[in-house]
Amino acid sequence: MIKAAISLLLGLAVASPAAAAPAEAAEPIYGVWIRGGHQQKLEFFDCDGKLCARGVFPPPPPGQPPALVLRYAARTEPNRWKGDLYNPENGKVYVGIITLDSPTQLTLTGCLIAFLCQSESWSKVPVEPAPSQKTPTPRRRN
Quick count: other Cβ atoms within 10 Å of Cβ 106? Predict the structure, then answer.
């Protein structure tokens, strides 16, 4: 039951995303990540020197204010943060631990209490290059 509740929390947490903002390039954790085996996406970003995340897919219902899913997580050691995971469905806040396993993989752990936790893998969404602005080559007149 606890495992199902945490899985539900992690799944529902991205149901109320905010509008996307540009990701910071300074930290490899910043950017958009997709939940393993799902289409849900979170964008991790800097918020007042802490780590925050908001849902970017699926989009929120029209007129619904965005929810901040991961709130002000502090770095506890290199490549590891701890903060509050907010469930917009029930308004409850859980302990969240984020571990950057590699530049393209992270583990998000949600805990009801210290020993009742569930972890999920997330993969970084590659940033697509901006379309190039090629200047047409002038034609040669004869």
Answer: 22
